[in-house]
Amino acid sequence: MKAIVFALRGFRRELRSGEVLVLLAAVGLAVAALTAVGFLTDRIGKAVARQANEVLAADLRLRSQEQVPEEWSELAREYDLATAETMAFPSVVFAGDTSALATIKVVSSSYPLRGAVRVADTLFGEQRVVDGIPAPGDVWADGALLARVGADVGDFLAVGELDLRVSAVLTYRPDQSIGFASLAPSLLMNIDDISRSGLIGEGSRVSYALLVAGDEAAVAEFNDAIQDLLPESIRVRSQEESSARAYKAADRAQRFLSLTSIISLLLSAVAVAMSARRFAHRRMDTVALMKSLGATQGFVISVALVQLVLLGLLGVVAGSLVGFVAEDLLSRILDDLMQTDLPSPGLRPVILASGSALVLLLGFALPSLLQLRNTPPLRVLRHDAMAPAPSRILVVGMSLAAVAALLYRSVGDIRMLVILMGGIIVIAAALYLAGRGLVALIGRSRSGVGVAWRYGLANVARRGRDSAIQVVAFGLGLTVLLLLTLVRTDLLEGWQATLDEDAPNHFLINIQPHEVDSVAALFEHNGVAAPVFTPLVRARMTKINEQSVKDRDYPNEDGRWLANREANLSWAAELSSSNEILEGEWWPADYDGPPLVSIEQDSARNAGLAIGDKLLFVVAGLELTAEIASIRKINWDSFQPNFFIVLSPGALDGMPTTYISSMKIEAHEQSMLINLVRAHPSISVIDIGAILEQVRGIIEKASFAVQAVFVFTLAAGIAVLFASVQSTIDERRFESAMLRALGAPRRTVFVGVMAEFAALGLAAGILASAGASVLAAIIAVQLFELPYEFSPLLWIVGLSAGVLIVCVSGFFAARSAINAPPGDVLRTAAP
Amino acid sequence: MLEAHQVSKQVSSPEGSLTILSDVSFRILAGDSVAVVGPSGAGKSTLLALLAGLDLPSSGHVVLNGANLSALDEDGRARLRAESVGFVFQSFHLVPSLNALENVMLPLELAGHRDARAAARGIIETVGLQDRWSHYPAQLSGGEKQRVAIARAFATEPAVLFADEPTGNLDSRTGSNVMNLMFELNRSSSTTLILVTHDSSLAERCDRILALDAGLLESDSWAAR
Q1: What is the bridge-based pairing of β-strands A622-634 and A596-600?
Q2: What is the pLDDT, as a whole number, of residue A340?
Q3: Dihedral of the CA atoms A651, A653, A659, A663 (nearest 10)?
Q4: Sheet holding B160-164, edge to edge
Q5: Would an 8 Å CB–CB cutoff place A291 in contact with chain B?
Q6: What is the pLDDT of residue A179?
Q7: Residue A513: inside a domain, yes or no?
Q8: Are A785 and A481 in contact (CB under 8 A)?
Q9: Residues B183-225 pLDDT 10s
Q10: Among B45, B82, B102, whose Cβ lies nearest the Cβ of A293?
Q11: C-alpha count within 13 angstroms, C-beta hemisphere, residue A383
Q12: Any idea where the domains of chain B sit in the sequence?
């Protein structure tokens, strides 16, 4: 009790002295990074929980690429279940001359069977729950879609052959995907309009679904009854499976996000350890005095603990506030990327962050404080009497235990934890060694410079360990930010540069055979060369070498999926210029023998297929066997229509075929597309340029949001710098006073101190630029298969940002040493 | 009251074992004022540390208020100090985060005094700082700081007061004012005073002078009064 009173009494003064601010900032930063991410994941988690039970808008969904036959809905009604029909497909909608790709969601009147649709009467207006679906002739459009085509409520949108009135803004439908999905915003349409729209023709890419809902037992009975009866082409999914998937996806996202805050947390831990050392060191005199006045060890340690806990609490409060504001910013950035509005966050993230802050303090600050207990009271008479240094095993053990405890929450299983800890230790050791190397180089370079610089560089080298830690801490923050800014744009631009100038920028899909001639004529009429039409036949592979695809073993899950899904087949006489044969041989152009097939290399590998294997396809009830003659590599960047499976000429004759085509259309030729879509409503035009632009927008927003999280990393790096400077501030004040007493002008001392920070910043910049370059090369070559190009800009920005930020932060951290009057310092502050 | 029995202190240094005090014995009675004098490095501060139980002798032992300090653990010695020892240091050693009054309250509270604040108020007035009690050490002059330190030392009415060069950081006028205050309080409270000093005029104001040189007790003389 006495200890608490005493601790409280000194605490306010302690805060005002500013000395504990760095420790406070370090704890606050860790909490801010954790809560910012915590609040966001909490809100996403709540959104998922709220939506998970209605993601199907039904209890059971039967989905097929063809219309689900009436017998299944009749059967459902026999079980006393409610039903609804839906269709979904991509299509271009127009408002005047402006077009945008939309997901057309066609629904029958009983939709949704679970959950409710929400609409707003104006763009960005108040949303309300609505009963029912758009009336025939009306549509409800996603706000993003309206924004893209520049339309508003009351305007008409051209959808296929119809002009439909936008009667409300669609803000939520239960079966929309959770998370990022704004590539093709939704348009909700009444099923009564669909037959008149001309949007659906034979072979159209439509996903049909029959929704079923009702009494739980009846649904289960119905589900059991249909399991063995359903044809291969209809897939059933229950609400439980769907919500489990939603939870799993949300869980993965949450883990990824919380891992991004780990780097900030680790750097904050370093800052906490450093400033706690200083915190303890500064208390040594007071502790010795209190002991000389009769305070026991228990009292001394209690006082320090109470103050540490108070500091932790303050850090939690301040950090939570910053985290809350940061999360608000994050969710604003992500707002129009998220398909759903987020519920407000709860207190859980604050509790978790407080727990983490406590663990952080216990693991990284407590060892230094425990050492205080052993301060000899003799120190009141002899200033060199010190407490023995805390045991290395204790310090390392406690910090590792703390890191493990903090990581475990994000990782959630022991094996991953061990791997991650191992990885962190190896990377930290490697970075530390690199930092030491750079510091040693700086130390060596000091013989060739003037007195001020020599003083600064000597300081870097003398405090070798701390200098290296600062270089690494700061360099890490910088690396991440360089990656997210420069490297990201470099990669995107690098990829776009590899694209052919004349690469197609539009795809036409769903062209019926009878439309091919009139489409070609339309092109010629507009003075554009008629494109190549590539045939497409939808089929299902049922057997590989006489064995059912269901019973076969596959090298991996991708292979199983590939073999079991509905496949798009094409045929060609000549090998496309964007293809290259890796194994086997392409058939002669005039080939006229039994069907042969050529497989894309990744598909062949995943499905375990080899030359000579015999594949049995079923196309609209007809069977076709083809032997694998070659394995190809495809250059997808060519943007030409390409297929995993291509057959020899004649093999697909007589099968139901549609055509696809790709072409380069200049901006001034765009109006032609409107005529094309008006004349052929079932043809879908996909504007690749617009999609790339949207992808780029999404990547930019998402990486901007991640950057916001990593700003905490940079701030934590700066906190490490402050903590380190502060731990040497007495020494620095004394040295600078000495120099000035010896006749050095204030300017020289200033240059010396700045030289030290410039050197540290340069080293951090080198580390960050090198790190970002290596990572960029790995990402470019491994992930994007692009040649890596050295970026001088990365180095220029990395080095100058390193020098600039460290110099500015260093100046603020060390200015009391530069400005202290030498007389005062020399009288009182002999180290 | 305070006895040193063949007290020696050795420390290890890079040059080998170094003897700072060698076989020092004496006995001080309650209420005496004793000056410890000698040149720099004679072992004055070491002796003070051993007498106050801040450090333990390498051989021999110290008896303070009837307790053998070597037989107590660190907390035991701390409790003994809380009950019966006061300190005045050369560099004041006030707690920078506490104001003058709180600094004076500190030993009272550590000794479990019931009304520490009122007691501290009283003694602050005695040392003439009633207008400055709420000031923090950084806002006080050297002389004021030392008066706070003296108030703190006398607050618990200790049996023994140890003063280590109390005027060392003060100019001579302030120093002599501070010493007048200290001797006055010493007389009025009949505390035993052990004063380590370089200043011979200060030493002569004490009842008894112990002179140390190179760790040996050179002379033990009583002032002629």
Answers
A1: parallel
A2: 60
A3: 60
A4: B85-88, B160-164, B192-196, B33-37, B208-213, B216-222
A5: yes
A6: 47
A7: no
A8: no
A9: 888 888 888 999 999 888 889 989 999 999 989 999 998 876 5
A10: B82
A11: 9
A12: 2-222
Task: Report how far residue A348's alpha carbon sits from residue A355's, in angstroms, rounded to the nearest whole number.
Answer: 11
User: Does one domain contain both A495 and A534?
Assistant: no
Residues of A in contact with B152 (CB under 8 A): 293
Chain B contacts in chain A segment 341-380 (CB below 8 A): 376-378, 380
List of residues 6+ apart from A182 with CB closer than 8 A: A144, A336, A337, A339, A694, A698
* Nearest Cα residue in chain A from B107: A293
Say what the pLDDT of residue A42 is: 81
* pTM beyond 0.80: no
Phi, psi of A408, rounded to the nearest 5 degrees: -55, -35
Q: Which residues make Cβ contacts (< 8 Å) with residue A137, sequence separation at least 6?
A: A164, A165, A190, A193
Write out the residue range of the structural domain in which residue A478 sits. 431-499+687-831
Q: Does A6 touch chain B (CB under 8 A)?
A: yes
Q: Does A4 touch chain B (CB under 8 A)?
A: no
Measured between CB atoms, does A382 come within 8 Å of chain B? yes
Statement to judge: residues A722 and A809 lie in one domain = yes
Rounded Cα gap, residues A238 and A114, in angstroms: 13
- Angle (deg, nearest 10), helices A488-498 and A688-727: 150
> Quick check: is A228 in a domain?
no
Q: Is A537 helix (H, G, I), strand (E, B) or coil?
A: strand
Find tokens 């990377």 and name the residue.
A427
What would the two tokens of residue A517 be? 């001639």
What's chain B's length in residues? 225
Label residue A830 by pLDDT band (50, 70, 90).
very low
- Residues facing B213 on adjacent strands: B216
Residues A265 and A326 in one domain: yes
Among A775, A761, A753, A747, residue whose Cα is nearest residue A804 = A761
Q: What are phi and psi of A430, to 5 degrees?
A: -65, -45
**Which of the pair, A589 or A447, is modelled with greater confidence?**
A589
Q: What is the mean pLDDT of chain A?
A: 84
Distance CA A362, CA A20 (A): 17
Q: State which H helix or E strand residue A498 sits in.
A: helix A488-498
- Residue B28 · residue B194 · CB < 8 Å: yes
Which residues are CB-contacts of A197 (< 8 A; sequence separation ≥ 6)? A159, A160, A161, A162, A681
pLDDT at A93 over 80: yes
ipTM of the complex: 0.87
Average of per-residue pLDDT across A701-720: 80
Architecture of domain B2-222: 3-Layer(aba) Sandwich (3.40)
